[in-house]
Specification:
Length: 393
């Protein structure tokens, strides 16, 4: 009988769950430890575009292609760019047959959870620290209990990973950019004009060194981000987040002089207003292999959300680490091969994301956003055609 390493995954985000699923398919049992108390503790956040050569590929390897297609919103891939006067600078509306469908984060998590055997996830387990045993295994320490020993601990625990310090002394640094998140429910019925303004996909507007990004999510929900280049403490000092109506009025005030049609997106917010300072690890972040511990996803290479690559990279890391562990008899070598490949694979993506955030909100920001949208429109129309050809061959 094959003997497998005893594996713990920390974090039931997209990366951790996709790895658990891939290993389950390969006949390798795992336990996932997640700090949230249960699966429906909180909505998981906004919409994600899942890319063909990373996120979709990983879901295919996880045997979830059909299930993914059932929750993917191909009809919501549009892009619109406005200037601050409300002038439409660029529109890419005819996108239903493109290859980067949107999916709500909660729907993606539910899909992955449903694909795992019962008892794979230990909810309400917030990792506090990891203790190394003399025999090379590791013990996990939670608030009131411990678990282990484990041969391999995979940190899929996001930006503020508690596993990362075992292999790296880097911590994510503030990028200088803060998102203020807001939401609008039932937009088609309650705010048809805003629904039309945003269209089927994403609206972006830029001017005066600030920006708005608003994305259509499932169930007629809009999720928006007001984007500023500010010191990290600015948002907490400026807004009373515990008083949503006051925070909303203050946020709308930041867009004085903008077209009322755009500012109305903020006035219509009926949700909490939440600060999201954006942190990233350095481009090229890597570590020396340490037996028994590794990282995937944001824990390994958190980057700015510009480019929409984070979740796709996390899913691909999961698929690749899973594949290495299934195919390579010596699991230590499998982990080493995963790390080497991941460090090389993520370089361009992380660099692209760092370049994008460096020029965000600059004097040429609107022009650069338009060029990016034009490139995407061309590239992804073509990619879809080549994917279709590949499938029909
Ligand atoms: C505002 C914003 C917008 C974004 N938009 C996009 C986008 O459009 N497209 C895109 O691709 N990416 C986007 N991202 C990035 C994306 O969210 C991440 O790259 C992705 O979620 C990474 O997945 P992950 O599984 O590595 O980590 P996470 O999704 O962060 O999951 C980590 C999991 O670990 C758990 N956890 C954390 N600490 C512990 C602990 N100590 N013990 C136990 N469990 C723990 C968490 O509760 C969570 O369930 C965005 C990020 C932000 C901040």
């Amino acid at each position: 009988m094959a003997s497998h390493p005893h594996i713990a995954i920390i974090g039931a985000g997209p990366g951790g769950l996709a790895l658990a699923r891939t290993l389950h398919l390969g006949g390798i049992p795992v336990t996932v430890f997640e700090r949230e108390p249960h699966a429906h503790f909180r909505p998981q956040g906004g919409t994600l575009d899942i890319h063909p050569d990373s996120g979709q590929l990983a879901l295919r390897h996880a045997g979830l292609e059909i299930e993914f297609r059932q929750i993917a919103r191909y009809e919501d891939q549009g892009n619109r760019l406005y200037d601050k006067t409300g002038r439409l600078v660029f529109a890419d509306d005819d996108t239903a047959n493109r290859d980067r469908p949107e999916v709500d984060r909660t729907a993606l998590r539910n899909l992955l959870l449903a694909s795992l055997p019962a008892n794979t996830i230990r909810w309400d387990h917030a990792l506090q620290e990891i203790r190394a045993n003399a025999d090379g295994t590791h013990e996990l320490v939670f608030e009131q209990r411990t678990a282990g020993p484990f041969d391999l601990v995979v940190g899929a625990d996001g930006t503020w990973s508690k596993v990362r310090p075992l292999v790296s002394r880097y911590v994510p640094q503030y990028t200088g950019i803060t998102f203020i998140e807001f939401g609008i429910d039932d937009v088609d019925v309650r705010h048809p004009a805003l629904s039309t303004l945003v269209g089927r996909g994403m609206l972006q507007a830029e001017g005066d060194g600030r920006a708005l990004i608003v994305q259509r999510n499932g169930n007629a929900h809009l999720r928006g981000y007001a984007i500023f280049r500010v010191p990290v403490e600015w948002a907490e000092k400026t807004f009373e987040f515990s008083l949503p109506s006051a925070a909303r009025a203050r946020l709308a005030g930041e867009f004085e002089g903008w077209a009322p049609a755009l500012v109305n997106l903020i006035h219509a917010c009926n949700d909490q207003i939440v600060p999201r300072p954006i942190y990233a690890l350095p481009v090229g972040h890597h570590w020396l292999n340490r037996t028994g511990v590794t990282l995937i996803g944001d824990a390994a290479h958190v980057m700015s959300p510009f480019g929409g690559e984070g979740v796709n990279a996390a899913l691909l890391d999961a698929a690749e680490l899973g594949r290495h562990l299934i195919e390579t008899p010596a699991w230590r070598q499998a982990v080493q091969a995963h790390e080497e490949a991941m460090f090389a694979r993520i370089l361009d993506t992380a660099q692209g994301s760092a370049d994008a955030i460096a020029t965000e909100l600059s004097h040429v920001g609107l022009q650069l956003s338009m060029e990016t949208m034009q490139q995407h429109a061309r590239a992804h129309a073509n990619q879809f055609r080549s994917a279709e050809n590949a499938i029909s061959r």
